[in-house]
Design brief:
Belongs to the glycosyl hydrolase. This protein is α+β, with helices and mostly antiparallel strands and about 725 residues long. It contains 12 helices and 36 strands.
């Protein structure tokens, strides 16, 4: 079946993925209309879905509020617009006039449909892009708006796409909320009638919400039910507006910016929205997650096939008290544990002794690193590890040489207070001179110090988001900032192909498909408490894969919660993602160091499953029983089960856990105990975890398919 087909004489287009179909048409008014999104259809079957346009039920209704591919502002439309244009004369509206279409093949196994339109009155052109691939059910959509006239226009709203759902008995929304150190709390609740807005007005993706959403009819579970979802590939302010209508429909639209901002378009200028990708599955939330993870690894991450190294970060051991001698001692202990990447955190540069000064002055502190970072990097490399450093390129302390030289470089509004958060201000990366400055010192640092890894942090939201002296600057900076951020990362990586980057924003404040297209992993949360992390990691993993989820083992009592849990429990929690260690190794006992080395070695034996395998969630972190996650090889050759329990739970049965992703009829050997299990039993009746009795117990079970395939009769 072709990936993109046109049904003759109907105006229908059918987009086919391996298991789903997406059908749309251009109606009699010239507007692009949604028809269907769900299980796969043939072209002939799709034709059966074509129905005549109906008249409004009354003069108060207008066009149906759900069902257009990109709802515009104008005519008898009264729902949230995806495209809202203000012209030079102050008028608003858009009327669709089709001007053509194209079917492209941008890469093998990929097809792209482009539907082209213009406004009937003004020379504003709109192109709707749809991309499908033969190896994923994820459909990528974005919109291009071009001002072909001689007068300025403003895009008051310029969403990437609108997605429509079929009429269902009920609707339920899944999304995440939170705050700093409490990110990615999964919420699964009925979708209210009317409009629901998910957004970030902070200039970054934010800790408080994430630019993805899932909808189902309320009956979907982890392994069953129809789920529609979408994720926006954007790392600045964003907005997704959902609506549930009186006529039993639901849909949502999403894109860049937030209320009160616009995208200016000068004559001849065009705006290309970020991708707003969508996915349908009838395999429940687990299948949706696995499809998103596979898509991200295959089509988003730049080096997803690599095995991410075990990392050590010095922050919790040293704070700002960083010097060459102390870092060398920690590096030697880290290497003995089996660490493969050593990262120096904040405090290595300028006059940085606390968070009051030094940001912006990115040269090694002469008294602490009299020979620069090179000798430390050489020693780290000599110990068999890669070398990384923490940077925060987008920020400046007022107490810095950079700010004293360039006070105009920060986001500000003349005459207004410059609000400081964490004693710092935000540099205006929308300015090309600021972006060039950041690229130059980063490139110099990487080259001169032999840096293999950057932990790129961003520790505050925007305020006084102005750009004086630039026409339309107060609006242009919101998208210009992100585009220049992306440009710096793209240039830096092109110049240094071996460089790897972690995105961080005080933890999980900037983790999205846009930033992950040019970074390798994401710092999930500043909160490293192992018990809290199980909840945070569960929400994070609904869309984003374990291959990008940084997780550290740190000391107890935990600095955020005061909680003390065993070292093994902390390791097992961190082993569910990219294992890192952040404790003060100088304070670890010989017993702890020996246990840590054993657990690092254990992770290395199974990390290919965590980083590249399929995720199953047999038991989430919100019940009385154990929390359980499972990572399976795509061919069913082996699987890893990680489980954690808060306490003995009197009266709570220690029930077996049913596994998934195994080879039918095969047998599996426990790599630790040698016990052999039948796949049929593991899937139908479950695996007994054998968690130790007592508080904060955990286990890791590695099952490997028996070599003779162990076929049952």
């Amino acid at each position: 079946m072709p990936m993109i087909s046109r049904v003759p004489d109907t105006g229908l287009w059918v987009l086919s993925t391996p298991r789903t179909s997406y059908v749309l048409r251009v109606d009699d008014t010239g507007a692009p209309r949604h028809v269907a999104w769900g299980p796969q259809l043939t072209v002939a079957q799709a034709g059966d879905l074509l129905v005549p346009d109906g008249e409004p039920a009354s003069s108060f209704e207008g066009r149906a509020p759900v069902g257009e591919e990109l709802p515009v502002d104008g005519g008898t439309r009264y729902g949230p617009p995806s495209l809202q244009v203000r012209y030079a004369d102050g008028s608003r509206a858009f009327e669709w006039q089709p001007t053509g279409h194209r079917v492209l093949e941008p890469a093998p196994g990929t097809a792209e449909l482009v539907l082209e339109f213009r406004d009937r009155l003004h020379p504003v052109h709109v192109a709707l892009h749809y991309t499908v691939r033969e190896d994923t059910d994820v459909i990528e959509r974005h919109t291009v708006v071009r001002n072909a006239g001689e007068s300025h226009v403003d895009l008051l709203r310029a969403d990437s796409a609108a997605w429509s759902l079929p009429a269902l008995p009920d609707y339920r929304i899944s999304h995440v909320t939170g705050q700093w150190a409490a990110e990615s709390r999964l919420r699964r609740e009925p979708l209210p009638h009317g409009e629901t807005v998910l957004t970030s007005r902070r200039g970054i993706t934010s800790h408080h919400a994430s630019p993805w959403v899932m909808l189902d009819d309320g009956d979907a579970g982890e392994e069953h039910g129809r789920v529609w979802s979408a994720a926006l590939a954007w790392s600045g302010s964003w907005r997704v507006t959902l609506q549930r209508t009186h006529d039993g429909r639901a849909g949502f639209t999403g894109g860049v910016g937030h209320d009160g901002t616009s995208v200016p378009l000068a004559p001849g200028e065009e705006f290309t929205s970020p991708v707003f990708a969508g996915l349908f599955t009838d395999g429940g939330f687990g299948a949706a997650s696995r499809a998103w993870h596979a898509y991200t690894r295959a089509h988003v991450l730049p080096h997803a096939w690599e095995t991410a190294p075990v990392l050590y970060n010095s922050w919790e051991a040293t704070g700002f008290d960083v010097d060459e001698a102390s870092q060398l001692r920690l590096a030697e202990r880290a290497a003995a544990l089996g660490v493969e990447l050593y990262v120096v955190d904040d405090g290595w540069f300028g006059t940085r002794r606390d968070d009051h000064a030094g940001l912006g002055d990115w040269t090694p502190a002469p008294k602490r690193f009299p020979r620069g970072l090179g000798p430390l990097a050489d020693r780290v490399h000599g110990l068999g590890m890669r070398f990384g450093v923490w940077v925060e390129p987008e920020m400046v302390n007022p107490d810095s040489d950079l700010y004293r030289a360039h006070p105009d470089w920060v986001l500000h509004i003349p005459g207004r207070t410059r609000s400081e958060l964490r004693n710092q201000l935000v540099l205006n990366f929308a300015r090309d001179d600021v972006a060039d400055w950041a690229h130059d010192w980063l490139a110099r640092l990487v080259a001169e110090a032999g840096v293999d890894f950057l932990k790129w942090d961003m520790n505050r939201a925007f305020s006084e988001a102005g750009w004086s002296g630039q026409p339309d600057g107060h609006d242009r900076l919101w998208t210009g900032y992100v585009h220049n951020l992306y440009g710096i990362l793209d240039r830096l990586r092109a110049d240094h192909p071996g460089l790897r980057v972690e995105t961080c924003s005080g933890g999980g404040g900037r983790a999205d498909l846009g930033i992950l297209r040019r970074t390798d992993q994401a710092w999930t949360s500043d909160n490293t408490d192992a018990v809290d992390r199980l909840v945070i990691q569960d929400g994070f993993g609904q869309v984003l894969p374990a291959r990008v989820m940084s997780a550290w083992v740190t000391d107890v009592p935990n600095q955020f919660t005061g909680r003390t849990v065993p070292l093994r429990y902390r390791f097992h929690a961190a082993m569910a993602g990219l294992l890192g260690i952040g404790g003060d190794l100088n304070r670890w006992s010989q017993e702890e160091l020996a246990e840590g080395a054993e657990l690092v070695a254990e992770y290395k034996r199974v990390r290919h499953l965590v980083q590249h395998g399929d995720l199953y969630r047999p038991a989430g972190p919100r019940g009385e029983g154990p929390t359980v996650v499972q990572y399976s090889a795509g061919d069913g050759a082996e699987t890893l089960v990680l489980a954690w329990r808060r306490g003995p739970g009197r009266g709570v049965p220690d029930a077996p856990v049913r596994l998934r992703g195994l080879t039918p009829g095969a047998r599996y050997r426990d790599a630790r105990t040698g016990a052999v299990h039948h796949a049929a039993v593991l899937e139908a009746y479950g695996l007994r975890l054998g968690l130790p009795v007592g508080d904060w117990s955990s286990t890791a079970v590695h099952l490997v398919r028996v070599a003779d395939a162990g076929r049952e009769d």
